[in-house]
Amino acid sequence: MSADLPEWYREGYDNIWLPYTQMKTAPDALPVVGTDGVYLELADGRRLLDGIASWWTACHGYNHPGMKEKMKAQIDRMSHVMLGGLVHEGALDLSRRLAGLLPGDLNHVFFSESGSVSVEIALKMAVQFWLNQGIEGRARFVGFKAGYHGDTSAAMSVGDSDDGMHKAFGGYLQQQYIRTLPQSDEDLAELKQFLRENKDSIAGVIMEPLIQGAGGMKFHEAEILGGIAEACRKADVLFILDEIFTGFGRTGTMFACEQAEVVPDIICLGKALTAGTVAMAATVATDRVYEAFLSDDPEKAFMHGPTYMANPLACAAANASLDIFEEEDVLDRVKKIEGHLTQSFAQFRDKPGVVDVRVKGAVAVIQLERIEDTAKLREEFVREGVWIRPLGDVIYVTPALSIESAEISALTEAIDNVLNRSSWNDSNQ
Question: Which residues form the signal peptide (predicted)?
């Protein structure tokens, strides 16, 4: 480890365990000392243009003045209070605003601290929804290959645990129905038949709408999403949408499900909910689901309670983020970002080793035949002054929705330089 690194880095690095990282062989993580707009500031003075917005959380960029002001005001009043038997203005305001933004009658908001936990909550809600009506045995879920819903146990079980990053846990997880995501009318017909035949064991279907994120940035059309929703309705199984990645403008509308005019029974939100400032997530249910828990019997209540649910500071951040969406016409910016990315990324289609190039909203993906060493490729991007973290066989960007045209051009130029560089190409021949 270099002596030029900050003292705090040299003294603490041996004690931290980083995510998705083989700590024995992985290159040392970069020390970040600050953020500014769409840039990460490193300890050695370098600035990296962040092409993935800290796993697509920082939707308004870093250090937005409006968010900082409102979060500082909140921490002066109240940083936290439990939600068991107590409630506060920020939580009620945020619940009301989310219900107003979401389609249909998604009116009942249950808060938590992470997207993975919001999925766990959705699955528990779905199982108890049936039990509260005296219907037993409906405790399994249909998920889809290349799906990713988080790293906790039930969330892993409804993702692609056979071929994905969680394959080591196959024997540990509850067995679910993991199917290939439909791509045609014939596929949808097969799914409808499967749901009809197995509905007595199925609590619900869960999927990521329009884009399967961490499973490979795979896209599907709004018609497919609508067809799956219709299949669930006809079979009378709950439809759960995981919009932790796709929500809050990422695909061009506030929520991806709007593009198929679909209202799920339960929706999971997170990531950009607080615009990359404080951990928070939400699971939102329709009137039908919520009313199944209303009873004179206390045992029919939903028995779940994250310690920091509806944390006042997180609520202040989320409300501040929604203010920005209202005041700055963010969705119009996403349309412009999509247009620029579509035009700029078209040049990569003819590059050697490129299988596909696809753009949706503020998501742009270059799929390659293979990437032999994602860590090496990440280092090449750092040399170009950008932070891009390749995933599997794809290079993707999910920039802040505040990114400027010149900065998109800089990202594109950096990718072009790296793909043209022989030191990277040689390892993929």
Answer: none
